[in-house]
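Researcher: Let's run the pair from yesterday's discussion. Sequence first, then tokens, for each.
Model: Starting with the first of the pair.
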Amino acid sequence: MIGRGSFSSPSEAAGAAVEEHCLRLIELAGPACVAIKPQLACFERLGWPGWRALGTVCSAAREAGLLVLVDGKRGDVPVSARAYGQAMVGETPTPRGPVRGLDADAFTANPLLGADSLEPLVAAAEAADAGVFALVRTSNPGAADIQDLDTPDGPVHERLAALVDSFSDRLAGSDGRLSGMGAVVGATAPERIDRLRSLMPRAMMLIPGVGAQGGRPEDLGAAFVPGRAGALVAASRSIAGADDPGEAAEELRDSLWRVSG
């Protein structure tokens, strides 16, 4: 337990506590997982101690053999998108030498500014042999407000799916069956998954919403049509808040193993 008197500011104490919490989860639940998905906002809000904790947590995950999928949902005009790409998976040149970013294996992106905003992020991932998961149909209740709106070419989420698919060749795997150009598709609208899989046959799907948000593993079979590597299912509160995070992670892993066929 970290004592309050050990730090010079609340932000340092909070950063250390978050770091300790995450390292414990990696130790307990990590053996049943393939990746961690740190939510950047939870670290950024703590200032520089939060960023320091994030770096330590990412390093610990790599040492444990886990992938690092950074969840920041970045998206901006191209010049800023390039900076985000450097921060997530690349490096920034300076007069004193290059400054490395987070060195993530993949990151989430917001494609709603269009293809030109996504291009620099994909380019950064391509250079780093990393992945990008673009928002397509998210798990929150308000997703329907925008993402399900009809257009002459189908709902907005289908237009986003087509955008994802258009980048698939850029991040295609060695056998061409799957691409690191992935999509965030929520488990809370499982009726959308089959159609979205047909529109993005090579995209890896990142599926949030299982557990606390009500999504069920048994409804996700269509996501795994390309094989067991076709989807990553993210669970946060249902594992982190469990009495035994390791057991909760194992139960979810076993459920998904059966569904993924």
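Model: Moving on to the second of the pair.
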Amino acid sequence: MNDCTCQKKKHREGDELRSLQNRLRRIEGQIRGLQNMLAEDAYCTDILTQVTAVQAALNAFSKELLGSHIRTCVVNDVRAGDNEVIDDLVKMIYRLMK
């Protein structure tokens, strides 16, 4: 069993937390909609259209979270002298752009 407690955390509250939770709830609803479409034998292109909408919603969620991360975590770490966060940010952006 791994007892590592080295993982970073970020407390979110207020508008940021509500906005991110609302986005994820909508995405969750879209996924359930896809399951229903499949169960109801919806036409392939109709399902694929909804898949595209889910992907766009996930991208919007990622953009919002990334923006928040840069404005808070990255800025705070750089101000504290931890420039390693910049390398981590670049790696994350590369992964998001795949």
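Researcher: Give me one sentence on the second I can quote.
Model: The chain has one domain: 16-96.
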